[in-house]
Amino acid sequence: MKSIMLHVHKDDGQESRLQVALDIARAMDGHVTCMQAAPYDYMVLGDPYFGVLPPEFRREAEEALAAFRKTIETRMNAEDVPWDWQTVSGMDLDVLVQRSGLADLVVISRRVRQEEGVEPISEAADIAVNARAPVLVVPPKVRSFDCTGTMVVAWNGSPEAAAALRSAMPLLARASDVKILTVGEIDMFFTPEEAARYIGGYGIEPQITHLPHGDDMVSDILMGAAQDMDAKLMVMGAFSHSRVRERLFGGVTQRMLDRTEVPLLMAR
């Protein structure tokens, strides 16, 4: 993971994802690309019939983006990580997805609940599904990323889970402990034992932990287990089939994206 793309946007998740991107870049001897979307031509005045943003408002938006860029550039210049800056015209979701093709990791924020502050972009699910690189979703209260801590893999045996596992190997290889978590008894395309053998090929000995389903939601079981294990990262697949997207993102995946307090790496 040498090329790390950081979503840059003025919101209450910025500091968290910046710190995490820096920590990963240091551990991987990587490079951070600060990706800023400039949605000038997409901003309208409430009613779509008004058309594009008037010139005076566009100037204000440009000035605000420039001022925020200066703030982040000053911060990055004080860090010990190589970096560059890209400002791309378009909405945040589109820019992050389109520019992810030459990134090894895209760092975005988990949705910020109302009591937590100003919300970052809320399309984490769409980015995770459509990005051409693994996506790291960072909770707003996280202030660092320990690449040597415990990491867990939420395993349901799907091809998406396998893709996320492969994408996460550069991070898992640095972990002090790797655990594969399953919930309940379900039919799996890839068994957790197969996942463990794959990880073992990298000289890692993961532990498989089967969690009972009970009456709790799967997402709550996974989040609770990750917190009990003091996990620094959770890895899971991002589902992509449109015909079941609403059901899936209304369930485990969406709840994880909305509520996780542990950084969540997703891929498909």
Automatic annotation (TrEMBL):
Mind telling me which InterPro entries this protein's record contains? UspA
Q: Which residues form the UspA domain?
A: 220-268
Stored Pfam families: Usp
Alphabetical list of CDD domains matching this protein = USP-like (cd00293)
| Organism domain of life | Bacteria
Q: PANTHER family of this UniProt entry? A: STRESS RESPONSE PROTEIN NHAX (PTHR46268), UNIVERSAL STRESS PROTEIN HP_0031 (PTHR46268:SF15)
Assigned protein family: Belongs to the universal stress protein A family.
**Record-given protein name:** Nucleotide-binding universal stress UspA family protein
Organism encoding this protein: Stakelama sediminis
